[in-house]
Amino acid sequence: MLYHSLRFPDLTEWHGEQNFSFLVRAFLIAAYSSIQRNPHTLKDYADAVSAIEPHLNDQMALRQRIRAFYVMGLAFAAVGNYPIALHWLDEALDLAYDLSDPSELLDLLFVHGNISRGMLRYRDAAMAYRDYLDIVEEYGGQSNPGETPLALDATIQLAGAEFFLAHYDVADQLLTQVRDLMPPLALTAPDPELRLMAATADWFQSQIYRWKGYPEQAILPATTAGNLYAELGSPISAARGQLMIAEIKLDIAERASGITRRSELALEAQLPVEKALSLIAKSGDRISRGLISLIDVRLSRLIGREQNRISIIEQVANMGHQVDDEALMAQAFTAWGAELVAQGDKGAALHRYREVRHILDGSDVPALGIWALRASRRIEENSY
After folding, report:
1. For residue 42, with 0-12 CB atoms within 10 Å meaning exposed, 13-18 middle and 19 or more buried, which class applies?
2. Vertex 331, ends 235 and 114: CA angle to 5°?
3. What pTM was computed for the model?
4. What is the pLDDT of residue 384?
5. How far apart are alpha carbons 75 and 81 in whole angstroms?
6. I want to staple 73 with a disulfide (CB 3.0 to 4.6 A). Which of 64, 88, 95, 147 is the partner?
């Protein structure tokens, strides 16, 4: 049975390997002791780096160097320096592939996938998750990913990556597989990690429903996921879950007939937005604040509130440019186009929608361009 060997700082059978260092062994054990505390803090990661960083250039066995790089990657990821974290993980992966021991690759691939996903590098994330699952299938002795919690999680995250890469059918197939493998009543299970996995599967399913144009089907899994994220997830993930609920509620409102009914349904989006604001109050998450501004613009238009919506959208677009966030810029320009359509300037709206396609050309989040594409087609079809 394949095991995740990277979780061990040292095993007796490695002591005879070339360049094995008992001194480095002691520092690795100290570093691992820090990061494996439960619960662990940022100080624990700092302690781990203090233990191992001064010895990175020491002579050591290949397995020891992989672990030293792994510790550095985890520590930089913990403080949010994802590019440096990926640098260390890439270094560790190169060595692990040279070692030709699949058990050394598992945790490296899984963490690499998670960090890449956090950076919206969905191609890299999908590759890492697929490699992880291929190893589990080939060497692990499992007949399916549901037999190991991490493999099930990797399948869920792979579905999400494929979704954002606009591989909708692949994402849908993976989520169908997840539903078949997920234990019964996972959303109410005593294990919080299993509940979070189930919530994440629901969140991606709601995304697919919404992208297919079925907001009424999307609202239930989105609400279920959003509530669980608020209970168990990080403030930022919980906030993003609430914002998805708000977006879907506005989708439903836009389809309603009659100004009064549209306004009533649109106002239902206020509660999840308020929850999101509360969740990010202390986090300084600028991206979520930008998304909230775009949702407020959309709500403002639906209820007929007097507001300089273009100015607000421009501010969000500029922020997206400043932080080099293609996803936020694309969403801002899509909102800009929708506002111009509402003002009757369809020519200018088409220009903004084309800018969305330009922003996302070659990006890792092409799925976000679907709204601009659909809106452009509606304008072009109605112009004949």
Report:
1. exposed
2. 45
3. 0.90
4. 54
5. 9
6. 88
CA atoms within 13 A on the CB side of 108: 29
Q: Please say if the pLDDT value at position 146 is more than 70.
A: no
pLDDT digits (tens, 9 = 90+) for 191-242: 888 999 999 999 999 999 999 999 999 999 999 999 999 888 888 889 999 9
- Per CATH, the number for 189-307 is 1.25.40.10
* Domain ranges within the chain, ordered by starting residue: 189-307
Neighbour-count burial of 322, counting CB atoms closer than 10 A to its CB (0-12 exposed, 13-18 middle, 19+ buried): exposed
Tokens, residue 335 = 């909102």
How far apart are the C-alpha atoms of 70 and 59, rounded to whole Å? 17
Tokens 């991606």 -> residue:
204
Q: Using alpha carbons only, what angle is made at residue 303 by residues 298 and 307, rounded to the nearest 5 degrees?
A: 65
Q: Are 155 and 174 in contact (CB under 8 A)?
A: yes
Q: Which amino acid is at 271?
A: L
For residues 350-366, average pLDDT: 95
SS3 letters for the chain? CCCCHHHCCCCHHHCCCCCCCHHHHHHHHHHHHHHCCCCCCHHHHHHHHHHHHHHCCCCCCHHHHHHHHHHHHHHHHHCCCHHHHHHHHHHHHHHHHHHCCHHHHHHHHHHHHHHHHHCCCHHHHHHHHHHHHHHHHHHCCCCCHHHCHHHHHHHHHHHHHHHHCCCHHHHHHHHHHHHHHCCCCHHHCCCHHHHHHHHHHHHHHHHHHHHCCCHHHHHHHHHHHHHHHHHHCCHHHHHHHHHHHHHHHHHHHHHCCCHHHHHHHHHCCHHHHHHHHHHCCCCCCHHHHHHHHHHHHHHHHHHCCCCCHHHHHHHHHHHHHHCCCHHHHHHHHHHHHHHHHHCCCHHHHHHHHHHHHHHHCCCCCHHHHHHHHHHHHHHHHHCC
- Name the amino acid, one letter, at 306: E
First CA to last CA across the chain, in angstroms? 64
Dig out the tokens for 58 from the structure. Answer: 């020491």
Say which residues have a Cβ less than 8 Å from residue 55's Cβ, sequence separation at least 6: 23, 24, 27, 68
**Amino acid letter at 77?**
A
Do 222 and 202 touch, CB atoms closer than 8 A?
yes
pLDDT tier at 190, thresholds 50, 70, 90: confident
